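Annotated sample (chain length 101).
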Amino acid sequence: GPKGEDFAIEQSVLDECTKLSAVSPNAGTVQVCDTAEEAVAGADFVYADSWMSYGVQGEQREKRFNQLLPYQVNAALMKHAKPSAKFMNCLPAMRGDEQTA
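Output written by the structure step:
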């Protein structure tokens, strides 16, 4: 994902995901990816979280939007997932931000 302190994943979160993944061979894995295409490659499900917290406005919103735009879920990105992949979005979904449809 985007680089920078605002987007860093806490090591404790990665550690917890690794711990949960070890519970069962079917539990999945965690992988940090640099590109959206890499992240969705062969995925069964593509999940987008909301990009903006409530109250983010003006220049701060525009800056964050531009930083996250390369990770927007759209038809071109979904072509990297499995043909049967399903898309899910954290609510409230903002069409035109984290996803296009």
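Annotation: Residues 11-21 form the longest helix (11 residues).
Annotation: The CA atoms of residues 72 and 97 lie 7 Å apart.
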